[in-house]
Amino acid sequence: MGMLVVLAMASAAAQGSPLRACASDADLPPFVFTSLAGFAGGAQNTGLAINVLQRSLMRAGREPAVVERLPWRRCLETVAYGQRDIAINVPSRELDAKRFLATDAYAEIHHVYFYSAQKHPGGALLHSSADLKRYMVCGLFGSRLDAFGIAQNRQDTGSKNERNAISKIAEGRCDVFIDIREVVDSLSAHDAGLRDLFTMPSIRRLDLPDDVPTGLHFELSRALPDGRYLQRSFNATIRDLIRNDEMTRMTP
């Protein structure tokens, strides 16, 4: 019996109930965020990652997954131990082949930084990523600034959203706020208030020096009996969407 037939049989046997997926409870538009335009006006999880997830499962003959929003570490651990099936939006640097089955990257993200022109009037605050070590750096709640080589005593990751982080920059409580360019652009396109905040005369935004694009992936639980079959379905779907330039059309 061929391997593809065996995988297909495993997939068919595992289709008794929808898979359980999880993403961070922090919004990451346009990839995953909470929309208030759902059924009967209720909130729902939406975004490019959700669309790619459900398209991939449909290709595999599976029902749409149930998506939960959890603290990020909890999301990953429950997938690792088979309590949930899929983790959404795992950055390339966090992939763990020993614990999960990772898909190809469906998107790439880039980093920008904000600083106060009043506090630092001399132009670009950072000339290389090594300059970050000299400053107090803000990030959103749950972000991992240690990936940028920033010491724990130079990090403030208590901001619940961009508005809170920019306020800390304006008030001088942080020198630098690191965010994701695609998130900032999405927020600016959909929220005039945030767009005005990002473009205040006293606030400067620049690309983060030495930044390397980071892929966003799905990680599947190794406890899934048809995990390899689903991994191939995800990868085939992602490749087709990129090749056909459908990702842009699927982005809210």
Globally, the shape reads: elongated
Helical content (DSSP H or I, runs of 4+)? 25-40%
Number of contiguous helices = 8
Separation of termini? 43 Å
**How many individual β-strands?**
13
Give the C-alpha Rg. 20 Å
Low-confidence stretches: 1-14
Largest sheet: 6 strands, mixed
Overall structural class, as computed from helix and strand content, comes to alpha/beta
Strand content: 15-25%
Give the SSE string: HEEEHEHEEEEEEHEHHEEHH
Q: pLDDT average, as an integer?
A: 90
Short description:
This protein has 8 helices and 13 strands.
Word description of this protein:
The protein is an alpha/beta fold and 252 residues long. Helices cover 32% and strands 24% of the residues. The strands form 3 sheets. Strands 1, 4, 5, 6, 7 and 13 form a 6-stranded mixed sheet that branches. α2 crosses α7 and α5 crosses α6. The longest helix has 17 residues.
Helices and strands, with pairings:
Elements: H1 3-13, E1 20-24, E2 33-35, E3 44-46, H2 48-59, E4 66-70, H3 72-80, E5 86-91, E6 100-102, E7 107-109, E8 111-116, E9 137-140, E10 155-159, H4 162-171, E11 176-180, H5 181-190, H6 192-198, E12 203-207, E13 214-221, H7 227-243, H8 247-250
Parallel strand pairs: 1-4, 1-5, 9-10, 9-11
Antiparallel strand pairs: 2-3, 5-13, 6-13, 7-13, 8-11, 8-12
